[in-house]
Amino acid sequence: MLGEGIDVCSIEELHQLENQLERGLTRIRAKKYQLLREEIDKLKEEERNLIKENKELNEKLSGMGAIVVASSSSTLTSSEVNTDGNDSMEVETGLFIGPPEPRQSKKIYPQC
């Protein structure tokens, strides 16, 4: 298999050994490609499930009427978020020089 001890082999023996190695290599490659194909199919199915779940969560979120606002502080004041009653929103922002602060997402529900 490793090519050791072939110094005393005849041409016919070397030819037989070569054929055996080629058949073995063909079986190994077939099995490898089968396993890769199964893994790809499994990952594609997982991708489809995640896309479906993401779509359902987005529909659920939009059905709740929630507005997600990113804020660098832990609380938002009424001066930072202004809604005008028709589902539009203005957010005051500021420019800070230096490294960014950690951001947290907050859900703000429109007042009806």
TrEMBL record:
It holds the Pfam family K-box. Residues 72-112 are annotated as: Disordered. It comes from the Eukaryota. Transmembrane segments: none annotated. InterPro entries: TF_Kbox. Residues 33-60 form a coiled coil. Keywords: Coiled coil. PROSITE patterns: K_BOX. The keyword Coiled coil applies. This is K-box domain-containing protein. Residues 1-67 form the K-box domain.
